[in-house]
Amino acid sequence: MEMRREEEVDMGEGVGKEDGSIEEEVCREENEENGEKRDMLIVTMTKTNISVVKGRGCNSASPCKGCHGIGCSFNDVVMLSESSTVTLVPRGGSNLKQVRLLNSSIRHVATHQYLKGLCSQKTLHASPNPEEMTIYYYKSTLPYRGMPVVLNFTGSNCFLRCCKEGERVFLQVETCEKQRLRQISISNESDLSFVFYMSSGRTMETKFESALHLGWFIQISNTDSAVKMEHLDGKDGDHTFLFIIQKS
Question: How far apart, in whole angstroms, are the C-alpha atoms of residue 174 and residue 165?
């Protein structure tokens, strides 16, 4: 923060142009590179007291170490609060930003089968034959539930998507332009339906939770090998929800 005299502010309000007019400096709220609005930091304080403290800190007879004997004064604003909370509020609407990718196959722990999609029919099934998938990783400003990822069938515009019709939550394969998913806003449910929270334990066995429909996880049934979305319901050790990421 910089303090300036009033007359300096008046003199520096604008920048003169060749034709004599004044060109005002405008704070640009948007990031020029990608058109995003900058994030905003909000500090919330309860039962706050604000005091202005003014006076001389020392004089030449009893100098302090900071001024080296020339004398100093202080003019401070002191704020004391019972409690405070700092919150980062994303202003650009893009809370998820793609940062890297990994080509791999995704193998189911219980059945040893792989995720395989049929894009033309929007269907997904389990197959004994590996199919390469691209996992796109995202940087998030949200509370951590796992690594946000988007699952793509490599070499195509086909992605896994979690959908809901009435009370039914299901998984399907859908085409989408990759550029559209480079940055995803949590307020855009259509785009957020492509996002899954990927979480792993020490064994590297991985679960995929829908970012849009929290509490719903990708599962392959042991009985009919159907790929679907199901509630975990406290069954953390259920291998039907667990997958292994095998790097290509």
Answer: 16
Counting DSSP H helices and E strands in the chain, the numbers are 2, 19
Give 176-189 pLDDT, tens digit per residue: 999 999 999 988 99
Question: Which residues, in sequence order, are bridge partners of residue 48?
Answer: none
Does residue 92 carry a pLDDT above 60?
A: no
Cα–Cα distance, 202 to 198 (Å, whole number)? 14
| Shared domain check, 70 and 100 | no
Give residue 206's domain range: 96-247
Least Cα distance to 206 among 188, 193, 219, 225 occurs for 219
Asked whether residue 18 is domain-assigned, the answer is: no
Write phi, then psi, for 82 (nearest 5 degrees). -70, -40
**CA 243 – CA 230 distance, rounded (Å):** 15
10 Å CB burial of residue 193 (0-12, 13-18, 19+) is buried
Give, in order, the Cα–Cα distances in Å from 44 to each of 52, 73, 142: 20, 31, 19
CB burial of 96-115 (b: ≥16 within 10 Å; e: otherwise) equals bbbeeeeebbbbbbbeebbb
67 and 58 Cβ atoms separated by less than 8 Å: yes
Q: Which residue has the tokens 């302090």?
A: 64
Measured CA to CA in angstroms, residue 11 lies from 22, 70, 135, 190 at distances of 12, 32, 55, 51
105 and 215 in a single domain? The answer is: yes
120 plus 229 within the same structural domain: yes
Question: Tokens 């996880």 identify what position?
Answer: 217
61 vs 13, which has greater pLDDT?
61
Q: pTM for the whole thing? A: 0.63
